[in-house]
Design goal:
By secondary structure, this protein is mainly alpha-helical. The chain has seven helices and no strands.
Length: 140
Amino acid sequence: MGSVFTGTRGRKAVLAPLGVALVAGAAFAYVGLVDPNRPGHYPACPFLALTGWYCPGCGGLRAAHALAHLDPVAALGLNPLIVLAVPVLAYFWTRWLVAGWRGRPWRPPAPRPLLIWSLLALILVFWVVRNLPFGAFLAP
């Protein structure tokens, strides 16, 4: 009976996803330790600074900080798009790691155009609505 972990090829194939996890984990830990709510630690959003409007990413660092402190409700209030993206990214990262573990190349399926356009429309609607008076609940 063969091992699921296929020798040198399998070990090398997991290095990339593990490297990504290491970098992402270090960045997440840094944001968890260095509070983005305190001024002077992170640059301001250039779009917000120029226009006074929130971009789709505004509140993302504070949402990550809230997640690092196990407060998903606060994180959702700061930037729901970022919070909802986390499990999706974790799913794709896991698929990549498992494929590497098995010694197989991982090729994510090509997204359908409808999915791409729907995601872009969602981001655009989120961007606009969070800057309107009735969408203030989406503002960070």
